[in-house]
Design goal:
The complex is a heterodimer of chains A (about 600) and B (about 290). Chain A is an alpha/beta fold. Chain A is built from 19 helices and 24 strands.
Chain lengths: ~600, ~290
Amino acid sequence: MTTSAARIPPTPAPTSPTGIAPEPRPPLEELADLSIMIGGQGGDGTLTVSDLLARYFRRQGLYIYTSRNVLSRIRGGHADASIRASRDPIYAEKNQVEVLLAFDREAVEIGQAELRSDGIIVYDSSVVRDPVANGFGFPFATLVGGAIGQPIYKNTAAFGALSVLLGFDAQAPNQVIEGRFARRGAELLDKNRRALELGRKAALDAGVTPRWTVAAGTAHDLVLTNANQCVALGFVVGGGRFFAGYPITPATEIMEYLTRYLPPFHGVVRQAEDELAAINMVIGAAYAGVRAMTSTSGPGLSLMTEGIGHAGAAELPVVVVDCARVGPSTGQPTRHEQSDLSHLANLGHGEYPRFIIAPGTPEDAFVLTIDALNLAERWRLPVLLLLDQALCQNTATSPRLSLNGIHLDRGKRLTAESVAALSEYRSYAFTDDGVSPFAPPGTPGVYGTVTGNEHDEWGHVSVQVANRRKMMAKRMGKMERAGDELPKGRIYADGPTAEIGFIGFGSTWGPIREAQRRLAAEHRTSRFYQARTLYPVPTHEIGPFLDSVEVAYVVEHNYTGQFARLLRETMPDRHCKLRSILKYDGHSFRADEIQRAVEGR
Amino acid sequence: MVQSFRAVQPIWCPGCGDFGVLAAVKKAAAELKIPPHELVVVGGIGCSGAIHNFYEVNGMHALHGRLLAQAIGLKLANPRLTVVAAGGDGDGYAIGMGHFMHAFKKNAAILYLVMNNETYGLTKGQASPTSQIGFEGTIEHPFDAVLTALSVPVPNFVARTFSGDPRTMTQTIIEALRFNQAHRGFAFIEDLSPCVTYNDTYKLWREKVLDLSKLPGYDPTDRQKMFELYLAAREQGRIPIGVMHRPKPDQTEASLEAQLLPDGIGPAQAELSIDTNRGAYEKLLANMG
């Protein structure tokens, strides 16, 4: 970090009656990354401010990570959003924010906990009457209300004040406003422009000078997205044509995106009466030979457990997305956790094969959704795509999604032509790999039966002993036989061996990668194995990885160390190398927490 | 000809009402010339739900209570299939009640046949949602699914038949399947199908059934009139049978799958290849935000 106070000289203390500024003011500091939190009541336009900031930082070629906090347990309609901008790729929140923009007293109180010790609070002094320590107070609502007649534009005025504090180029904020509001009509654009200018002028009149800045970067041609959107896009591109779901945080957006994306491709999206219906509608569609998916979170997953087991028994290819949140029961619907893994690995009564795969970034979610659809159809079983709240809903600047290298594997799907060459069609024919060729209803010349009863090759109910043994081996053996076809983990390493090993899945990818950079700066070597197939446990990958590190920290968001337990269970001889770094307070890891845990602090 | 699924001997007790239902479905499909590869029978759990095992067409044996959700998913995925969901009163009105009510609301063009025997036969005769007070000691009131169906303000086809009158049952199923084939909506038929082992009601029901279509003023396009006739029959201790609701021929509302897929090309007919869709996919990805 360098200071460049010389570039912009400090200005004298404020004299304007429109604002209150603290003094003395430290000089401008250039940071590698910057975090801003915006809080207020729902309707204050906190998300608009976050969006305007994101637009500015993206123009500057910076990487962005944004998150929303809906603090449902706190009275009133408090809502806040955070945005982090960086010259390096980021997929995690920072532990502290530099600037807090607060539209009311509650936002000041909640945000203060996130603020670094010399952080600055910009607040609306027409609502927060008493001066706030380390704060710049501006009467945004009354300023805008008086000049424009509608206090609703106070958020744009606040963006104007922030643009001064953060040393934005003078013309850029105006262009950002134009980019966001031009499509909404000349009047709205004009009012926002005036509000921006009111906010800027108030800050300048109060003697606000730039405090923190991030130099322009090279991150261009990226998209700001999250896993929920990328799963929806992956579903369409991966040939998914039927989706049924039931609204549940944090999974709902997948259904909402698909409601927009799927119909032009002759796809169907339905909101079912409950998760029982959603999974069973998906099962019906899968029997029709259509690539079908549902998405849910913990409580819905509990209800779908029955149906997923049925798909396993009936050998029907379904994809179930679990956007994990804090459990058990209703838990904390808007909060982050990774505590469904043990449930997924043991989902349902009886025994049936399933794959659990877990992407680490939005782009990875796109790729693995397509893999999930291919694997489900290739192996004729349920594939569980495990996400988590931070991955689902926080947005990150990501590489553009590409169609390169995507192919659809329809497995042993029969067609009218291939059926004609058969002498007989058995829905559950025994084969070398345990996968039976499948002809969906409507295929001319054949018909067959699928059932959750134990059955013989024809689909007839069977209690015959030899058949039961053979059918169990046919189904359960798929997990072993799939082996190399399952998504491979990724290793991010300083070298072929390292002092510190990390094992993680899902959104911990971001903070672990950042923790690696921090450790490297202290000359500590690390290797990170990002698990992308969680079940069956890829022991063939994790074994050699463990050989390459002195100790491996399994980083996960739950109380009992579920992935670590799964590793210990499947690799009992590796028990002593594994440690857990756990977090289960509803917030995602910050890099420094992982670093401190490794350092024993 | 490819050898496909072979039907097995029904597991039903001799004299079971479900034989009549199976025979009626077969006759109706033959009458309408539905080829076996385009017909799917979705079975529930229970004696009646085994029906697909005894019929050489496509079969989907669903979970207990979930057959309607599976059948509707199937129909929406391939709107060109004829889908007959068939199960018992416990399956449909107890564990499946939520899906039952929503099937009327969804209005997908499938036929739902409930074989009502007022007991759980396969688990040996417990009281079901339609059991009369006193049966197996039950003190709860029986549920009337047809009366409930009549109350849903959606242009569905609603009827009750009796296994003791197979000819009328066949005609009713034919009408229901035609209603489905025209993508007009959901068809629900409750068949009174006695369990000869645990609740033999043949004689009682033969005395109590009352064909509302024989009554003056019968008009199944008029819900209010049908409620009056239905409730009057109930008050006399009779069991109303016949078509209870039949939308007017000039009804314009189409079934769910026809509204979702107006060109008749469904998910099962959709083109999936990346190359065919490349232009549209690239546009989608370019505009993602």
